[in-house]
Amino acid sequence: MPNAPDPGDEGIAGDRRPALHAIVLAAGEGARLARLTERLAGAPVSKQFCPFNGGRTPYQKCITRLSAWISRHRIIAVVARDDSERATDQLPATGAVELFSQFADCGTAIAVLGPLIEVLVRDPSAYVLISPADLGVVDEAALRTTLRYATGQAMAHQRTVLVGSPLARSSAGAGRLRPYEPALPGGPIVPLARLVAAPGAGAAEPATGNALVDTQLVVAPARALLELYAKLYPRLLRMFLFWASLPVAERAHYFDRAGRGLPRLDLQADLLAFSHDLAVCCLPADAGVFDLDTEHAVIAWLAADASVAGHEPSLVPLAPASDRPYRRTRVPAPSGIYPAVAVRAHA
Fold first, then answer.
1. Which residues pair with 24 in a beta bridge?
2. 20-312: which CATH architecture?
3. For the CA atoms of the chain, what is the radius of gyration?
4. Smaller CB count within 10 Å for the chain: N or C?
5. pLDDT over 60 (residue 92)
6. What percent of the chain is predicted at pLDDT more than 70?
7. 133: nearest Cα among 288, 22, 282
8. What is the band of 291 on the pLDDT scale with cuts at 50, 70, 90?
9. Which pLDDT belongs to residue 228?
10. At residue 285, does pLDDT exceed 90?
């Protein structure tokens, strides 16, 4: 990687580098993999908390990956209320991170907003690294190196950087990042021309031009993200700012009442896609970063991981195709609250 400012967390006396915080998205239900994870774990469990290969879960690996260079007191994990105890149990007491219990699964854009406000209250100049907790990774060192480089570039240029990976057959249903010019592994960041949302199961986006797979890893100035929320969803932001002003004991009760009509908003498709100042950083092809959104993606990740490690791949018991719960539920958007162009209903 080219030289870039080291975004190390602690720094030295007099160091004025912005602090880096991490928001880990670990609240997804993982409905598509529900049958598989139940068979592997012996009980219903979200995919980020499932030990696919008999070892550590994707959630544990994600926290370990980030805490290698970000202090754990600056890592916030967004989890569903029902998973709070599991998320705590999967980390040792000495390595615990702050948990943010999500009141409902309303998509990644809403999942990020609460922790983002919390970060800005503590540090108005902070940068945030947003990471899904359910990534399957083959080369952890390569991913950590790229994330550190992307963070350094985001801080140096004061802009939002998205991390992409070269296209692969297993990424047919993932979102796409289309930079203005080719983004090379180890090369400089490249301005983004277009962010294409994930088309969903069975609707692959053509692999053309300079397109990269969107890993959903994002490094951004926290204030810039909040300004984007203010521009696109002012009433949603006001709701969350009022929530943040409440005593901690009253916050959950507030969203139990006020949050019932919220639509499902995706961080990439419904927020970042409307930004005009995005850049792309490319992962090495052999980093092997997989979005574990389908059983076939899980198989591809385990096979790649086994090939690198030199052992036999883990056996994954597939459910019959007719039993896979791939159907999505349409979530209505209340009129008058959100701009219609930015609200995506899943069918």
1. 77, 131
2. Alpha-Beta Complex (3.90)
3. 19
4. C
5. yes
6. 77
7. 22
8. confident
9. 97
10. no
- Asked if 272 and 344 count as a contact pair (C-beta separation under 8 A), the reply is no
Angle between helices 248-258 and 234-245 (to 10 degrees): 150
CA dist., res. 137 & res. 286, Å (int): 10
Annotate 107-146 with b (16+ C-beta within 10 A) or e (fewer). Answer: bbbbbbbbbbbbbbeebeebbbbbbbbbbbbbbeebbbbb
* 160 vs 315 pLDDT, higher one: 160
Q: Residue 324: left if φ>0, alpha if ψ -120 to 50, beta else—which one?
A: beta
Residue type, 218: V
3-state SS assignment for residue 45: coil
Residue in the structure block whose two tokens are 């409307």: 274
Four-CA torsion 320, 174, 199, 27, nearest 10 degrees: 80
Residue 140 sits at the vertex; the CA angle it makes with 220 and 98, to the nearest 5 degrees, is 55
7 and 144 in contact (C-beta within 8 Å)? no
pLDDT in tens, 148-189: 999 999 999 999 999 999 876 555 667 899 999 999 888 899
Question: Could you tell me if 281 and 166 are in contact, meaning their C-beta atoms sit under 8 angstroms apart?
Answer: no
Is residue 83 a contact partner of residue 27, using CB atoms and an 8 Å limit? yes
Query: Taking the model in full, what pTM does it have?
Result: 0.83
CB contact set of 338 (below 8 Å; sequence gap of 6+): 232, 233, 235, 236, 263, 265
46 burial via Cβ count (<10 Å: 0-12, 13-18, 19+): buried
Name the nearest CA neighbour of 272 among 339, 196, 209, 325. Answer: 196
Cα-Cα-Cα-Cα torsion 284, 286, 287, 292, nearest 10 degrees, comes to 120
Amino acid, res. 131: S
Average pLDDT score over residue span 268-278: 93
Tens digit of pLDDT for each residue in 318-337? 444 333 332 332 333 333 33
Spatial neighbors of 157 by CB under 8 A, at least 6 apart, are: 189, 279
At 190 the three-state DSSP class reads strand
Average pLDDT for 82-104: 86
